[in-house]
Design a protein that fits this description.
Layout lengths: L12 H11 L4 E7 L2 E5 H11 L4 E3 L7 E7 L4 H9 L3 E7 L11 E7 L17 E7 L3 E8 L4 E8 L2 H11 L1 E6 L5 H11 L2 E4 L19 H18 L10 E2 L7 E2 L1 H6 L15 H5 L5 H12 L5 H16 L1 H11 L5 H10 L4 H23 L10 H10 L20 H28 L5 E5 L3 E7 L13 E5 L3 E5 L1 H33 L2 H27 L5 E2 L5 E6 L2 H6 L7 E5 L5 E5 L6 H17 L7 E4 L4 E5 L12 H15 L5 E5 L7 H19 L2 E5 L8 H4 L3 E11 L2 E10 L7 H7 L4 H15 L4 H6 L7 H15 L7 H16 L2
Parallel strand pairs: 1-5, 7-10, 9-12, 10-11, 13-23, 18-22, 21-25, 21-26, 23-24, 24-25
Antiparallel strand pairs: 1-2, 2-4, 3-4, 5-6, 7-8, 8-9, 14-15, 15-17, 16-17, 19-20, 19-22, 26-27
The structure holds adenosine-5'-diphosphate.
Length: 846
């Protein structure tokens, strides 16, 4: 049954209410609270029952047939909600806003819409990554993207040239989970992002027009930036509905401040996840992450993805790492202290949004308690930022919140004794009452002589005196017992005295729980005022955590401090690939990477599997690590600052579906040569192999010439076209290097050592035999190789084969050979005719 097809007039009032609310949340699954359940109806119910494997039932609502329905219990709805959100659905939570026990229909309203990008706490929220929600605003001449992590409060905006590819690249690079786009954005972009990258997209052009959050863009004059932020904010406030004042002032991303890495570099260099399995393990991030806090881990990821270009800022990071490496004891002490620092960034989000509990405040208190020690150590290490110590907040939390407070905030036991006089009085009344009860039990036993007399409590009758059937005859009128309840084995009574105390106890219990809740809210509001300070502290702690992590990794892996030079020379002695050297179960062979002022291109030849692409990646990773402020894996490193890195390595991932690998390869090459400057680095691995040999070789060569003559940036170019190695004679700034291999008795040993000069032959067939291709194929390939290398043997070999080789070309060569042998001056006309006849026969043969 479809929602749009039902006759409203026949529906029950509650279903009409449902339809009205649902009208505003067409694109979400509506969790409609009825009593203890969130119910779903119509298409929502069908979808949710499928996705969540719930039983689909029906509800009679005045129509002939029942409306499809399914539900989840409200006290355990979270896993269901998370599952739907994980799958990319939006869920609107509709609550009962008035007391359901009162007369009349309960009012209902949506209190928030939960989506992938707006999660604040959830088991599916990775604590080590940011969870970005973003907006794209198309201004017809440029794009603005704003993106925020509402679990941490970070907000960023950047302007992007009017270039679709760039826009998509950036969204993917930032790993934005959900987007709001204005209605000018091209549908093709939307489809690509939705279908190829599973990004949840909402089309809306509304801008927030109230001033609550104007501090986020305070002082910004570029209206595009302001509009873009308001565009994002409209959606955020509309879905979250609660307080979001933990959102921080916007960070305007100036691309010129960072080393630009295209999305291919991020993926191919396996910076934050591996190419094939898409896992963090074995990525650069995995290797470098020895952080102690989740905030540190998130920041490290941002540093890896955004290396710096400012020498001063980079060296500031080196300086602190150097300091940490010399101050071993302080370093260890600091690391130990960071163990006690909680995720303050995400905590600020919860404080502001209001969904935090007393345990969070205890975590905050514990974190604050370590700050004075951290501050002292940072001063000793001459760290250049000042950590604020929030003693007053610490004291407040210390005197107010119980260490063993429960997760719920409405059941009391949150506030410490001594914090509120009023609360303590209520509690003593209640506990005094309880003491009274105990005493009363004793007194009544003595008065009546009934040893097993008990004073008990239940919710319906309150306090009672319980006497077993065998003893009830002992009760006398003068005791003033009134019978309340008869059970099979006993009777329950009350006395006026008991009732009087009961009121007092129950009232004070209820009142104290209510008061505790109010006090908690007051404290939370005070803490809210500290959010900017807490965020500042988190910034410093995360930076220190990352630098500590880099120091620890440098130390255990023998990295060195890079020297940044001003001329365009690369000098890296004994460079190592940081991840390969760590995970390999063989000895890693370090290689020098040297490119002086006169060398811009290294043309790398060598057998497959010899280590060409590892060599290229090593350079890129060394540069990225150096520019993010880390020490690097080698013996000595002198490098200039690079502005951009482009890579075309390994398998292509098609950015826009339906394109061939070769097409993608050429697009990436185009992107590199047209955007690179003299200060960039280009890595081209086997460029051109995706097309026919001559085609590919010609392209590779012309691209090399173009880079050499026009772009003039440092470039590593690996190739299996030996023919290209002669370029060294023609292009002044190109040098041949090769990765050596040792061939003995038909087997090949890779030495992984990069040496000057070109390689003398290809070892592809040996690699094929190493992986166990059938002997027949290997033998035949060896024969064919022989033909190519020694054209004279061709005819004989070809005749043995039924493989589809290029016969026309073979004949052409044979005829050419024969003609070469003819000396026209020495033959008679008849001989000439005979030769001609022979040649014709040759052509007609087969
Ligand atoms: P190519 O690009 O030449 O096909 P790769 O760079 O992919 O080769 O390297 C092939 C394998 O050789 C890698 O997986 C790695 O295990 C190993 N390797 C590469 N370089 C080195 C090195 N310098 N030392 C030791 N092993 C290496």
């Amino acid at each position: 049954m479809k929602r749009n097809e039902v006759d409203r007039n026949k529906l029950s009032p509650m279903m009409v209410q449902y339809l009205d609310i649902k009208l505003n949340y067409e694109d979400a699954i509506l969790f409609f609270r009825i009593g203890d359940f969130y119910e779903m109806f119509f298409e929502d119910a069908e979808l949710a029952s499928r996705e969540l494997e719930l039983t689909l039932t029906g509800k009679s609502c005045g129509l002939e047939s029942r409306v499809p329905m399914c539900g989840v219990p409200h006290h355990a709805y979270l896993p269901y909600l998370e599952k739907l959100v994980e799958k990319g659905y939006k869920v609107a939570i509709c609550e009962q806003l008035t007391d359901p026990n009162q007369k009349g229909m309960v009012e209902r309203g949506v209190i928030q819409v939960v989506t992938k990008g707006t999660l604040m706490e959830s088991s599916s929220l990775d604590e080590k990554s940011n969870n970005y929600i973003g907006s794209i605003y198309d201004f017809s001449h440029c794009y603005a993207i704003s993106y925020a992590d509402i679990s941490t409060g970070e907000v960023n905006t950047e302007l992007i040239n009017y270039d679709t590819e760039k826009l998509i690249n950036e969204i993917i690079r930032l790993d934005i989970k959900e987007l709001i786009v204005n209605d000018l954005v091209d549908r093709k972009i939307i489809n690509t992002l939705r279908e190829n990258y599973s990004i949840l997209i909402t089309i809306s052009s509304s801008l927030l027009d109230d001033d609550t959050y104007s501090y986020i863009y305070d002082g910004i004059t570029d209206v595009r930036v302001v509009n873009s932020i308001k565009h994002l904010l409209y959606y955020l406030t509309d879905t979250k509905k609660g307080n979001l004042t933990h959102l921080q002032k916007v960070n305007i991303i100036d691309k010129n401040k960072y080393l630009e890495l295209d999305v291919h570099s991020k993926r191919n260099l396996e910076l934050v996840e591996t190419l094939r399995l898409k896992e963090r393990t074995y990525s650069l991030l995995w290797l470098l992450d020895k952080t102690k806090t989740a905030m540190g881990s998130r920041l490290l990821k941002r540093w890896i993805e955004n290396p710096l270009v400012d020498k001063k800022q980079i060296e500031r990071r080196y300086d602190f790492i150097s300091k940490l490496l010399t101050e071993f004891i302080l370093k260890e002490e600091l690391r130990e202290l960071l163990n006690n620092v909680y995720d303050l960034e995400r905590l600020s989000g919860r404080i502001s949004y209001g969904n935090l509990n007393a345990r969070d405040l205890i975590q905050l208190k514990n974190s604050l308690s370590t700050l004075p020690h951290i501050k002292r150590i940072l001063e000793e290490l001459e760290y250049d930022r000042t950590l604020e110590v929030l003693d007053d907040l610490y004291e407040l939390l210390d005197k107010s919140i119980n260490e063993d407070a429960p997760v719920t905030i409405k059941e009391g036991n949150i506030i410490k004794k001594g914090y509120s006089k009023e609360l303590d009085e209520l509690k003593s009344l209640s506990s005094g009452g309880k003491d009274f009860i105990l005493k009363l039990e004793q007194e009544e036993r003595e008065r009546t002589g009934i040893k097993n007399l008990k004073v008990g409590f239940n919710k319906v009758f309150g306090y009672y005196i319980e006497i077993s059937n065998g003893q009830k005859d002992l009760i006398k009128d003068e005791y003033n017992y009134t019978r309340k309840q008869t059970l099979s084995n006993c009777e329950r009574y009350v006395t006026p005295k008991l009732k009087e105390k009961e009121d007092l106890i129950l009232n004070s219990d209820e009142k104290s729980i209510q008061l505790e809740y109010e006090l908690f809210i007051q404290i939370r509001d005070i803490v809210r005022g500290y959010i900017p300070k807490i965020q500042n502290i988190s910034n410093i702690i995360s930076e220190v955590d990352v630098l500590l992590s880099l120091a620890v990794v440098s130390e255990s892996n023998n990295y060195v401090r890079p020297t940044i030079v001003n001329d365009r020379c690369i000098y890296i002695k004994d460079a190592r690939h940081p991840v390969v050297e760590k995970v390999a179960n063989f000895t890693y062979v370090p290689n020098d990477i040297m490119m002086d002022n006169k060398t811009n291109i290294l043309l790398i030849t060598g057998p497959n599997m010899s280590g060409k692409s590892t060599f290229m990646r090593t350079l890129a990773l060394t540069i990225i690590m150096a520019q993010m402020g880390s020490f690097v894996p080698c013996k000595e490193c002198k490098i200039p600052i690079f502005d951009k890195i482009f890579t075309r390595i390994g398998a292509s991932d098609d950015l826009v579906s339906g394109e061939s690998t070769f097409m993608v390869e050429m697009k990436e090459a185009n992107n590199a040569v047209s955007n690179a400057t003299e200060n960039s680095l280009i890595l081209f691995d086997e460029l051109g192999r995706g097309t026919a040999t001559y085609d590919g070789m010609s392209l590779a060569r012309s691209i090399l010439e173009y880079v050499h003559n026009k772009v003039k940036c440092k470039t590593l170019f690996s190739t299996h076209y030996h023919e290209l190695t002669i370029l060294e004679q023609e292009l002044r700034n190109l040098k041949n290097v090769h990765v050596s291999a040792l061939e003995e008795n038909g087997t090949i040993t890779f030495l992984h050592k990069v040496k000057m000069g070109p390689v003398d032959r290809s070892y592809g067939i040996h690699v094929a035999s190493l992986v166990g291709l059938p002997k027949e194929i290997i033998d035949r390939a060896t024969e064919i190789l022989d033909i190519y290398e020694n054209p004279k043997n061709k005819k004989e070999v070809y005749k043995q084969t039924s493989l589809n080789l290029d016969m026309a070309e073979e004949k052409h060569d044979v005829i050419k050979e024969k003609l070469k042998e003819v000396d026209i001056l020495k033959i008679t006309p008849l001989e000439a005719l005979n030769i001609l006849d022979e040649l014709k026969k040759e052509i007609n043969e087969n």
